[in-house]
Amino acid sequence: MPSYLAKGFMRDCAYALASMQQKIQSIPMCVYDVGIFLGLILKSLLQNIAYVLQNNHREYLKVARHST
Known about the structure:
Elements: H1 3-26, H2 29-67
């Protein structure tokens, strides 16, 4: 591969990275905030589900003890 092709390829890669970085920086902060908000909702849902499952398991153990 001739050196001028390698240099051109490297320059194109650097240009592509720079343009991607500019696009990422131009994403409005509201998108980021919505992502955090959705993450918090998902986290609380998972915690509630885990809590309910733990309580159901305890109730099941109580019923199992009384039935024997």
